[in-house]
Amino acid sequence: MKVAYLINQYPKISHSFIRREILALEELGLPITRFSIRSCAEPLIDEADQQELAKTNIILDAGILGLLISLLKVAITRPQRWIEAFILTLKLGWKSDRGILLYCAYLAEACVLIDHFSELQISHFHAHFGTNSTMVVLLNHILGGASYSFTLHGPKEFEKVEAIALPEKIKQAEFVVGISSYGRSQLCRWCDYTKWDKIKVIHCGLDQSFFSLPRQPIPQENTLVCVGRLCEQKGQLLLIEAASKLVAQGFKFKLILVGDGPLREPIEQAIARWQLKETVEITGWATQAEVQQHILASKAMVLPSFAEGLPVVLMESLALGRPVISTYVAGIPELVIPGKSGWLVPAGSVNPLVDAMKKVLETPISQLEDMGKTGANYVKEHHNVLTEAQKLMLLFQEAKHSNKSPV
Do 170 and 98 have their domain in common? Predict the structure, then answer.
């Protein structure tokens, strides 16, 4: 059995959970061929990502001429399949938010995959995210390529279901993965109830680099950390406002923002406006090892997200024995147990966030340690990447047995 993965951009700093999944499958004895539609524009600072880049086939490296040649080649050698795929491309492109021309590009990318499918004898494609990567493997399947499945993370896919043709993608797939029960529920909304059994839950997971670390005590210093891309959905601007209110109440602490992104300048302006330069620090992008050290140097992780799937960084923090503050959004309440492993607050509300941060700073270290242990045990049981990869491998094997031979 030969399985290939397709991701829009891989490797990527924020896609370490995909890398862990691929490596876990290979550790279990299933080699994975990696495909990415395009290279990541961000620098790859983690050595593990750099190693993955060397193993990854970039579809757009074929260039415009290569895409056109593949498109023509498949049209000539598989005319009936090509016409069927072209009609579907026009139908879905017309309804999309990206337009027919871009969907024709997806068709050309699917034709490039057909060549690889024949050459490498790939039996199944798996895509991450329900957007263009899944559209490409769908069209590849219509062209007579391998069966496919995909993992949907949210939240963006759930915001434009019809525009990305999610019902059609679910319909044609062998199976579909949600990363939480919440995610599965949203997928079930967009397919007939008789097909709900093809919607599975497989969690994102962590590897032994988290579970094998010796337990490190929570430090006495009042340090909070927030790890994530600096963007609207992560809520860092709200976090800066909450920090200003805590400072005004006389609390002394350090808030470390690990990451970078489009909101860095507005966040820096907010830090200056509220005179928080001695309180808040932005590190920029960090390697996995550096992220771990920032988490371990903190009392708690704070991620006041407005929209999410299920943030891996919360799993990482809990696995390292640090309680978390986050919001009642999507799959987060399935991971964080209020009062046991962290605190949950309403998304977009400043004062409850201030209260939760205050509780962290006022809670005795021994109690924080107990919360960290509870969170670590939960993550080890429910988010071990090897355990989750075993579930996924079984689904791939079932897909192989049920797959019809392509034309």
Answer: yes
Tokens of 187: 């997928």
E strands, 216-365, in order? 223-227, 254-258, 280-284, 300-302, 324-327, 342-345
Q: Are residues 161 and 19 in the same domain?
A: yes
What is the 3 state secondary structure string of 322-336? CCEEEECCCCHHHHC
* CA–CA distance, 126 with 204 (Å, rounded to integer): 15
d(CA 159, CA 151): 16
Residue 404 predicted with pLDDT over 70? no
Say if 407 falls within a structural domain: no
The answer to whether residue 84 is domain-embedded is yes
Residue 388 CA to residue 202 CA, distance in Å, equals 6
Distance CA 224, CA 302 (A): 7
**8 Å CB contact between 380 and 211:** yes
Residue corresponding to tokens 């600072």: 45
Q: How far is CA 191 from the centre of its chain?
A: 22
Coarse DSSP helix, strand, coil percentages of the chain, rounded to the nearest 5 percent: 55, 15, 30
Q: Which residues of 290-322 are buried (b: 16+ CB within 10 A; e: fewer)?
A: ebbebbbbbbbbbbbbebbbbbbbbbbbbbbbb
Would you state the structure tokens that stand for residue 82, as one six-digit string? 């090509």
b/e for 268-286, b at 16 or more Cβ within 10 A? bebbeebebeebbebeebb
Please give the C-alpha separations between residue 21 and each of 109, 335, 351, 379, 383, in angstroms, as whole numbers. Answer: 24, 19, 38, 16, 11
Distance of CA 225 to CAs 116, 222, 283, 358, 385, Å? 44, 10, 11, 14, 24
Assess contact for 407 and 78: CB atoms under 8 A: yes
What is the count of structural domains for the chain?
2
CA distance 260 to 238: 16
Same-domain check for residues 234 and 167: no
Mean pLDDT to the nearest integer, 220-249: 97
Got the DSSP string for 367-380?
HHHHHHHHHHHHHH
- Give counts: helices (H), strands (E), the chain: 18, 13
Q: Retrieve residue 147's tokens.
A: 């069966």
> What pLDDT, in 10s, does the model give residues 274-329?
999 999 999 998 988 899 999 999 999 999 999 999 999 999 999 999 999 999 99
pLDDT in tens, 17-54: 999 999 999 999 999 999 999 987 777 888 899 999 99
- Cβ atoms of 70 and 93 within 8 Å: the answer is no
